[in-house]
Amino acid sequence: MLFHIRMDVRLPRDLPDDEAAAILAREKAYSQQLQASGKWRHIWRLAGEYANFSIFDVSGNEELHQILTGLPLFPFMEIEVTPLLRHPSSIRDDDS
Amino acid sequence: MLFHIRMDVRLPRDLPDDEAAAILAREKAYSQQLQASGKWRHIWRLAGEYANFSIFDVSGNEELHQILTGLPLFPFMEIEVTPLLRHPSSIRDDDS
Amino acid sequence: MLFHIRMDVRLPRDLPDDEAAAILAREKAYSQQLQASGKWRHIWRLAGEYANFSIFDVSGNEELHQILTGLPLFPFMEIEVTPLLRHPSSIRDDDS
Amino acid sequence: MLFHIRMDVRLPRDLPDDEAAAILAREKAYSQQLQASGKWRHIWRLAGEYANFSIFDVSGNEELHQILTGLPLFPFMEIEVTPLLRHPSSIRDDDS
Amino acid sequence: MLFHIRMDVRLPRDLPDDEAAAILAREKAYSQQLQASGKWRHIWRLAGEYANFSIFDVSGNEELHQILTGLPLFPFMEIEVTPLLRHPSSIRDDDS
Amino acid sequence: MLFHIRMDVRLPRDLPDDEAAAILAREKAYSQQLQASGKWRHIWRLAGEYANFSIFDVSGNEELHQILTGLPLFPFMEIEVTPLLRHPSSIRDDDS
Amino acid sequence: MLFHIRMDVRLPRDLPDDEAAAILAREKAYSQQLQASGKWRHIWRLAGEYANFSIFDVSGNEELHQILTGLPLFPFMEIEVTPLLRHPSSIRDDDS
Amino acid sequence: MLFHIRMDVRLPRDLPDDEAAAILAREKAYSQQLQASGKWRHIWRLAGEYANFSIFDVSGNEELHQILTGLPLFPFMEIEVTPLLRHPSSIRDDDS
Amino acid sequence: MLFHIRMDVRLPRDLPDDEAAAILAREKAYSQQLQASGKWRHIWRLAGEYANFSIFDVSGNEELHQILTGLPLFPFMEIEVTPLLRHPSSIRDDDS
Amino acid sequence: MLFHIRMDVRLPRDLPDDEAAAILAREKAYSQQLQASGKWRHIWRLAGEYANFSIFDVSGNEELHQILTGLPLFPFMEIEVTPLLRHPSSIRDDDS
Asked: N or C: which end of chain H has fewer CB within 10 A?
């Protein structure tokens, strides 16, 4: 089941540099593992913003919530969730 | 070059049924031709709404504008454009 | 899988009375059939507004979309969808 | 009398971990006691957010206010209150 | 039980004058009867606007909804409902 | 002359408890003195919020400003002012 | 007593030209008479908009309401009212 | 050339009292000098708010910017600029 | 003196095609004459929208207003005006 | 390819003066180098605000993102990106 997620990152200015670096490294590993598993289907950067649009393919709301709240950056993010489905005009096999 | 587009359709209530049907048929053909060409990379329906999220892969702003204003439904749509780029954590070849 | 839906009804003033009555009767039958089937889990009226909050229990985004766009009042509604899950503090068996 | 409540939790970053844990434990106990009493009728988590939708069944505005301002997390919450009533299409005995 | 209501009236321009006059007369009679009964506790006009702030004292959400949707101007109003209670600093007997 | 005021209180978390208690005690005394004088005509609590709706009856904008900026909680409040007048449908002597 | 008013005019497209011209002529006469009387203290056009900022000097909310709702353009305006008072830094005799 | 300015002051709570007093004294002197010169044409306080509406008469955008950014309170203000011109219905010599 | 203008065009659906074409032709001629004169310094289309960002170089607010309200499309536009000045970091002779 | 950017600067009050001065000096050098290269085509100050409108001419979204996130002030800015293209009515060679 597909979900469209927008994530906006707001790192507090007083977060120590090494702590920030450690969180970002964990975030990257976490994201790439989920991409490899097929659950984090797409991720794009928004030009000029510390934000991404992502597509998740998960078993349902419960799994989506576990994945999102497990993000190392979760405490520093605003997250917007939109449930998706196959578009009737789509011709791609992998858009559903 | 990638763009994220949200389209919300608002068909006026006094649009005659056959006129609406003809526009929707032209819209579907137009969309599928662009999908086949690779320019309209993805399209998903938002659950419960007459709207879609799409990803376009075009040569630039000029081509994007020609495609969007050429949509048969363009006069009945609200369109929101966000320029995208490859995310540094992405592991997919086709997300850039 | 649970979804929280807010529906706001806006009947156009020039909708003939008998047409409106017919739509509302179909809407009520449609809603009660879905309630009986267990898919439309709850529905409440908002005090002073022509609106409701509802809880749906469906197999996923796809089924939710089919149900919502099938509402006889769908063309006259604003709909807001929020995916839900069981709350960790819940003690009710039927809130998941 | 029924009320729909949305609660968004915003824990300040400088709240010590043990203080946060103690508040959350008190919050859970407080919530479950009210659920057991029937006053906190439903509670659901919003997917991807530190927030819940709840339904309260109380004697009136006064009792609702006492319950909400008594929440251990009250100082860290944004709360939105909507008075509800039985929907004329409802077929459930316990939605009023 | 007390409720604070804001009502904004938007009469459509194509409403015939005599029809508008009849609705306004019924609205005034309806309002004054409810004021006389004590259920519509206060009503004030907002300077420069076709709007009012009102205080209702009713048995609960259900009665409030019946009263508001029974307003002859209801189809032409935007209504905003806020549940109230006695303020701990109040010294007036009749503010609760 | 009548004014409708909405006050939302936002006490900063680092305000020492005794300082907060002292401000709140001064606020209550200030409010009750103005209520006794007839200038602060009504005050109600909003259910679930640290906020009130109030009605002031003062000689004009100047006096209203002196009273509001004199509130001990003024530095911690958001205030919204709406000038009122007697509603043409009102039947109460004391709503003007 | 002083009030700051913003007026935005929205003439409907189907208002016949001669009717519009008659309303605008009445509006101008009405405004100039009130300016001559001293009650409509200032009026300025906003560059690029069909709107004005005005300052009124009236006996109170009641008179302000009578003047504003008496504007020939009142049914076609959005009006925003802000009560003013003399600023403590003002050196002009006529800004109070 | 005329400009309408709204200024909202937000003094941070941790600004030492004597520093705040010094800034406010400089602000008052700065404002009154510009009023005396005719460049700061009007200033009014908004009832119940730490804010003012002002009218400036300057040679153009450049001078307006120099004056506004030179305000001692500039770092603590939100400023909203609206270019004005003489209203065609104005009868006052000094409203242009 | 420089101004930044955003114009959003909303042609009503019931505007006859030949009337629309005539307005658009007059608009284009009007715009190009002002561009040739140097008063309409820049104009760009927003990708995917029936809108433009423009830079005007005029003698002041008065002339700006005459130009904007003289646009053949003015009755069908939303216009947003922002006064500009030379940026202290600019190295271009023609950005002031 | 052209982009319209709005940048709003919010320097935190606790940023040491010399650190701020160093960042601003680096920002100016960075901006002027990009202006000299032709990539930062225009920059204007908004009157009364710590903000600018800029036009960039870059190879695409990727280069735009590298430039914007490389701004020394990037951590202290809100940035809004709008893709542009040549307007069909433009007569300037250098507006595309």
From this structure: C
I80 → chain G, closest CA residue? G48
Question: Which DSSP string do the residues of F36-48 spell out, in sequence order?
Answer: HHTSEEEEEEETT
Residue J9, domain member (yes or no): no
Q: Which residues from G are below 8 Å from E when comparing CB atoms?
A: 5, 12, 61-62, 64-65, 68-69, 75, 79, 81
**Minimum-distance CB partner of E85 among D1, D62, D85:** D62
Residue F78 has pLDDT above 80, yes or no: yes
Those residues of chain I whose CB sits closer than 8 Å to some CB in chain B are: 13, 45, 47-50
Q: Compute CA distances A28 → A25, A35, A71, B90, H53, whole Å.
A: 5, 10, 10, 9, 50
For testing contact with chain H, the best of G28, G39, G43, G57 (most H CBs within 10 A): G43
Please judge whether F3 and G83 are an interchain contact, meaning their C-beta atoms are less than 8 angstroms apart: yes
Supply the pLDDT for residue D32.
Answer: 97
Domain harbouring F14, CATH code: 3.30.70.1060
Cα–Cα distance between B43 and A13 in angstroms, integer? 38
Does the residue H75 lie in any domain? yes
Report the chain B residue with the minimal C-alpha distance to residue J3: B61
In the structure, do chain H and chain D come into contact, i.e. share 3 or more CB pairs under 8 Å?
no
What pLDDT does B94 receive?
A: 77
pLDDT in tens, D10-63: 999 999 999 999 999 999 999 999 999 999 999 999 999 999 999 999 999 999
Nearest chain H CA: its distance from I73 CA (Å)? 21
Q: For residue A71, what are the domain limits?
A: 2-86
Spell out which residues of chain D touch residue F45, defining contact as CB-CB under 8 Å. 65
With CB atoms and an 8 Å threshold, state whether F82 touches E53. yes
Q: Is residue A91 part of a domain?
A: no
Token pair of I86 as six digits: 């030379």
User: How many C-beta atoms surround the C-beta of residue F6 within 10 A?
Assistant: 17
- Which of H13, H45, H48 is opposite residue F79, by nearest beta carbon? H48
**For chain C, which chains pass the contact test of at least 3 CB pairs under 8 Å?**
A, B, D, E
Q: Say how many domains are in chain D.
A: 1
> What is the token pair recorded at B76?
């009945």
Mean per-residue pLDDT for J60-68?
Answer: 98
> In which band, very low, low, confident or very high, does the pLDDT at J88 lie, cut at 50, 70 and 90?
very high
| G16: pLDDT strictly greater than 80 | yes
Nearest to G4 among H31, H53, H90 (CB): H53
Which chains form contacts with chain D, at 3 or more CB pairs under 8 Å? A, C, E, F
Out of F3, F61, F86, whose CB is closest to G84? F61
How many C-beta atoms surround the C-beta of residue G32 within 10 A? 15
B62-96 pLDDT, tens digit per residue, is: 999 999 999 999 999 999 999 999 999 999 887 77
Which pLDDT score, from 0 to 100, does residue G94 have? 77
CB J89 within 8 A of CB I43: yes
pLDDT of residue E62: 97
Specify the long-range contacts of residues C21-28, CB closer than 8 Å, at least 24 apart: C23/C72, C23/C73, C23/C76, C24/C72, C24/C73, C26/C72, C27/C71, C27/C72, C27/C73, C27/D89, C28/D88, C28/D89
Reported ipTM exceeds the 0.85 cut: yes
Show pLDDT as tens, one digit a residue, over chain I (96 residues).
Answer: 999 999 999 999 999 999 999 999 999 999 999 999 999 999 999 999 999 999 999 999 999 999 999 999 999 999 999 999 999 999 988 777
- Closest-CA distance, B63 to chain C, in angstroms, reads 32
Coil vs helix vs strand at F81: strand
Q: Which residues of F touch D59 (CB under 8 A)?
A: none
- Please report whether residue D30 resides in a domain: yes
Shortest distance, CA G1 to any CA of chain I (angstroms): 30
Q: What's the pTM value of the predicted model, to 2 decimals?
A: 0.96
